[in-house]
# Entry
Amino acid sequence: MRKNRDVVGWLTYAGITEMDFPIVQRDNVYYLNRDFSGRENMAGSIFLDGANHIWPQDDNLILHGHNMKNGTMFGKLARMLEPEIARYFPFMQFATLYEESLYVPYAVTVFSNDPKDSRYFEVFAANFASEGEKETYVATLRQRSSLVFPTDMQPTDQLLTLVTCHGPIDTERLAVALRALRPGEDQEALKQAFMTQVVKR
# Structure
C-alpha cells in the first residue's frame, strides 16, 4: 500500500511458481500496459476488474492478466488445462485487504468473447440477481470445462475467476474458475479427491 495505493490483494499459486503477484485495481485500461509502479510495460499487471468491490465483497472476483509468451503475468495459466497441476496443487491463495482465502478450481474453460461465436460466454459477472442465475453461471462453466473437478458447489460460495487471452484467435479466452474453501472444510479430504478424481473431459 505504501508503494501503490491501487493494490487490493495478492495472488499466489504453488502449482505455477511464476504466479505470485500483487493485485491492483483502477479501471480495465490503466494496468493493461503498466507495471505495479505505473511505468509503461507491455506485460501490464494482474488487476481486479474495475467493476468489482472487495468490501463488501462481490459474489465473483474477476482477475485479468496478459498471456505473455515469456511466461510472466498469466503466461502460464494455460498449464491449468493439465490435470496433473490441479491433482498435485489444488489450492490457490488470494488475499485481499480484508481476508485471506484458499480457493479450489471448479472449471477451466476456453470460451469466446465474440457474441457471434458458438463458444461465446459472458464471464464478467460480479454479482448475480438470484441463486438460480449464479447456479446457471457456474453450471455453464462446468459443462464447458476441459477438466472435470471433484468440487461441490453451493449457492453461497465465494467465486474467483482468472481470465486471459488464449490461442491464435483474438477473441478466444481462458477462464480458470474457482470457489473459496468454506469455514471448517476438510482440506485433506479435498486433496485426496483432487489427486484421484481430476480428469480430462
Q: What stands out?
A: The longest helix spans residues 131-144. The radius of gyration is 16 Å. The CA atoms of residues 11 and 94 lie 5 Å apart.
